[in-house]
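In the previous chapter we treated chains in isolation. Here, by contrast, the input contains two separate entities that must be folded as one system, with a combined length of 470 residues.
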Amino acid sequence: MNTNNKNYLASFEVPENQKKNPEVLRIILTEEYTQIDFGYVAEWIYEKGGWIRIAQNTFIQVEGSEKRYTMKEAVNITIAPELHHFESTEDWQVFTLTFQPIPIKDCVIDIIEVEKPDENDFNYYGVKLKDVKTIELINLSR
Amino acid sequence: MNLSKSAFRRYKVIDSLLRNPMRKYPTMEEIISACMQKLDFEPSPETIQKDIANMRLPHPDGFDAPIHYNRQRRGYEYLDPSYTLAGVSLRQEELVAIQEAVELIQSIGSSRISDKFTHAVEKLLSATLEVGQKKDDRLPVLQMMAPPPSRGFENFDLFYNACKERIPVSFIHFSYKKRHYKHILLHPFLIKEFENRWYVIGFSETHNDIRTFGLDRISNPLLLNKKFILTDREKRKAYQQDVYGVFPIPEAKKETIKIHVSQLGTHYFQAYPLHESQRIQKENYGTSHITFEVIPSVELARFCLSQGYHLEIVEPKWFKKFTQNLTE
């Protein structure tokens, strides 16, 4: 890793109609990868809180481009078809998805797990990244 | 540093020879001979060379000993004549005191001490190995609460450094009660343990106020290259000294809390003061009025509740009501 590269904590806005469980909590932009932290709260409608998993082919798309920034790593969530089962409806889980690096600039992105999603898939459209170079991180190594 | 007792004993011999002003530049043969005399053991030249190499290793693997082989004098020397292996020379009773202190630290338990401190303790232990003569297979005679490792404690070092170096931190926080997440930008100034739980306290940019966060509810902390917002010294001091617990009641100011305590309860308050500001005014039959000068906290309210009929909050009325509401 080139330590001269700067890593940024991006400010972002998720459109109201895209706010869901799991919630997009933090977006980090670097020249090597893009990291998104999510938080999931187990739901009472599911027996023992149900389960979560993420599709291997999850990707980011930047508005105005066809390029897909594919997922490189998933931490604290299993990759489909394997499931992460909760033990109760009170459980919670923070997980991190790492993607190929998107350009470090203000832009609008879609985070897409499934191209033709149902309500259970983790798709987010129109996430606005702004002032992306305002906050720099220290010693972020991966 | 994983140091055996015999190795450290040889280091001490080497150190004493190198510091002997009457016989400078000890040779390899002289070091081996001194080891034989003092340790009843003849180490090989390879062992001594290895010892010297280990002593030279920088912290934390070695002792940073500036040992140099002087070719002209054909012997070893310290390049820094003021260097000593132990840093300072200690008398026997001082070494015993250190040994006892180390035992006390060990009794606190590694779960309360991060890896960073474990090394320091290990080094201190190695330096006091020689006084551990009385050690046998008896179990420790001192035991303190040592809870198993808790979630989030792995971030202790990061927050400790952030407080010390004044570095803002970004992290994800989950509220057990509200069951929701928040991304927090914190300018931390204090790590506090209360009832075996760890908390970090600082100015939260997210809340534009001072906030307390349990380490167990914090995920993915990251250090930020951002100007640190330093909390006013008096406020920091208040969090350290004037709060029983970690969650002061919002908007509450330091004030006098007055409680009425039963006879039995009074014995315990006398024996175990709740706060350094505690003052007891005993009544004729052993009951008492007790006052504290503190910022009322959630933990203080819970403590009062836990005492049942042994304790009644007298003043302030709002705190009495706050405490009663906790049960509803």
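The longest strand of chain B covers residues 180-194. Residues 92-108 of chain B form the longest helix (17 residues). Compare these points with the single-chain example from earlier in the chapter.
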